[in-house]
């Protein structure tokens, strides 16, 4: 998305050049008008006396024959050509309606995940952000419409109420209060609050008595309420004469994903807290890969992050230069990440995986080969049976909901040749500034132990229990030990809703993949440097 920032900068520069050209043309026309205004004032006072002078007669002929034609040409000059051409060049890279909708849904995802109210978003009060950014009434209204069109009435209510709140506070806007109430009243009805839907619709009709849909809706809502009250043997309450509109918070609807609450709690850094006794068994160490020659003089810094399942983190796995080179190589190839359709086996995009990815091979740059070699040295696993290095870019609100890192699909023909995924190695950039104060941001919650089955290695059952906090170039590795377990149906991997983030990952296939050795380590007590 950074390219769009610079594209917009170029367009602003082009627009200023267009304005400058238009102002220059307008100045020339004004000069003509002022000069001729003085001249015609004198000539019309005494036309015959004016034309009696032969020079005036000549200049009149010249002006009408030549100079007015030149002025006409000046006025007809279209200085917008360059500006229009520049827009046309950039427009092919502009986001479309689907992109805008995706960005709006991403804000709502962040809103839910981090328990941020609409007003905080609107006023730009986000934890850890460096730049102020505000949402206008029009912005809030558009957010609400996006949710409404997706039948997401919970968020439609939140954002229409925020738009209403800002209008009532006196903010100037092109959006009418009646339009907001129109969407809000029906969304409230869809949330099951018929009495309030009636109240809001009445307020709408008090503003715009000719609103045809509101009249029909009011009759419909009142009929529903009347039937409900009759069933409960109650009488209908009188219409309130209050002029202010009360804003109501509704309970968020139940999600289709059973793990949603745990998943989002992890995003906020609210995972299961480890007891002091368990924490005392976590260590930091220098890992030399069983006296690997490449690690003897410069062993890797390894930290225990979790005890069961065993999760470790490697610090300073990648240098800043390597990270930038990997980003440079991946950027031109980034494309929307896909998932395999469980019914057809065809790769397709999905709402639960919002990111872009690219795959890099060793021959493309020595950096890729060096990184792969370093991963081999640290893990003791050969990359000969690993997949290509994948770079994943998570934009605004990017996420990957809880999922398996291995294949459970019988139609995956690659399993017969390559075997199933054995381990995942994730390299992370530094955390984002936004939400950092919440102990959140660029995170991974992948908790896997691995064992040998008849056709490969399978993850052990584990629900997400805590957040791994990778820093610049840091890497959490899942499954550093071998265990024997059958595979279960619990999702094991998730990437949270992020403000933005990037990581590079490597997956190993299990067939064939020898466990080379146990690693020799030098152990120290926490805290780690």
From TrEMBL:
Recorded source organism is: Ictalurus punctatus
| Residue spans of biased composition, Polar residues class | 475-491
Which PROSITE patterns does the UniProt record give?
TPR
Q: Where are the TPR repeats?
A: 178-211
Gene Ontology molecular functions: iron ion binding; L-ascorbic acid binding; procollagen-proline 4-dioxygenase activity
Q: What is this protein called?
A: Prolyl 4-hydroxylase subunit alpha-2 isoform X6
Cofactor(s) this protein cannot do without = L-ascorbate
In this chain the Prolyl 4-hydroxylase alpha subunit domain maps to: 309-485
Q: Where are the transmembrane segments?
A: none
Record has Ribonucleoprotein as a keyword: no
A Pfam family annotated for this chain is: TPR_P4H
Keywords on record: Dioxygenase, Iron, Metal-binding, Oxidoreductase, TPR repeat, Vitamin C
- Region (Disordered) spans which residues? 456-491
What's the name of its gene?
A: p4ha2
| Organism superkingdom | Eukaryota
Q: Name one GO cellular component term.
A: endoplasmic reticulum
């Amino acid at each position: 998305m950074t390219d769009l920032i610079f594209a917009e900068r170029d367009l602003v520069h082009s627009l200023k050049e267009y304005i400058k050209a238009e102002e220059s043309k307008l100045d020339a026309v004004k000069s003509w008008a002022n000069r001729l205004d003085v001249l015609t004032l004198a000539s019309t006072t005494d036309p015959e006396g004016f034309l009696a002078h032969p020079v005036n007669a000549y200049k009149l002929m010249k002006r009408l024959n030549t100079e007015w034609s030149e002025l006409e040409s000046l006025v007809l000059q279209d200085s917008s050509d360059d500006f229009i051409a520049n827009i046309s060049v950039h427009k092919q890279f502009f986001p479309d309606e689907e992109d805008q909708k995706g960005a709006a849904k991403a804000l709502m995802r962040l809103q839910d995940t981090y328990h941020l109210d609409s007003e905080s978003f609107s006023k730009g009060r986000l934890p850890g952000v460096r730049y102020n950014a505000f949402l206008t009434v029009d912005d809030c209204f558009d957010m609400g419409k996006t949710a409404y069109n997706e039948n997401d009435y919970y968020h439609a209510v939140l954002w229409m109420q925020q738009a209403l709140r800002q209008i009532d506070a006196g903010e100037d806007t092109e959006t009418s209060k009646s339009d907001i109430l129109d969407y809000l009243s029906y969304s409230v009805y869809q949330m099951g609050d018929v009495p309030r839907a009636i109240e809001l619709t009445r307020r709408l009709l008090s503003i715009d008595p000719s609103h045809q849909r509101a009249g029909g809706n009011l009759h419909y809502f009142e009929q529903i309420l009347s039937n409900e009250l009759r069933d409960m043997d109650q009488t209908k309450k009188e219409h309130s004469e209050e002029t202010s509109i009360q804003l109501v918070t509704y309970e968020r609807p139940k999600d289709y994903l059973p793990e949603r609450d745990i998943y989002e709690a992890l995003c906020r850094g609210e995972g299961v807290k480890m007891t002091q006794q368990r924490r005392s068994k976590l260590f930091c160490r220098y890992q030399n890969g069983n006296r690997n020659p490449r690690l003897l003089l410069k062993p890797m810094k390894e930290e225990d992050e979790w005890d069961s399942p065993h999760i470790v983190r490697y610090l300073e796995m990648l240098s800043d230069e390597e990270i930038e080179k990997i980003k440079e190589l991946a950027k031109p190839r980034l494309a929307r990440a896909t998932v395999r359709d469980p019914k057809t086996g065809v790769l397709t995009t999905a709402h639960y995986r919002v990111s872009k990815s690219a795959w890099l091979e060793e021959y493309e740059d020595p950096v890729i080969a060096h990184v792969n070699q370093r991963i081999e040295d640290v893990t003791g696993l050969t990359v000969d049976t690993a997949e290509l290095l994948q770079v994943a870019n998570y934009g605004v609100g990017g996420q990957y909901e809880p999922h398996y890192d291995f294949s459970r699909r019988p139609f995956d023909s690659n399993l017969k040749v390559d075997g199933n995924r054995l381990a995942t190695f994730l390299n992370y950039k530094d955390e984002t500034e936004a939400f950092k104060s919440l102990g959140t941001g660029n995170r991974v919650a992948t908790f896997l132990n691995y064992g040998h089955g008849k056709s490969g290695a399978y993850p052990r059952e584990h629900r997400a229990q805590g957040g791994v906090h990778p820093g610049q170039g840091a890497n959490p590795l899942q499954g550093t030990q071998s265990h024997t377990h059958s595979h279960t149906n619990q999702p094991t991997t998730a990437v949270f809703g992020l403000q933005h983030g990037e990581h590079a990952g490597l997956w190993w296939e299990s067939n064939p993949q020898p466990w080379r050795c146990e690693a020799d380590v030098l152990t120290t007590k926490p805290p780690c440097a």
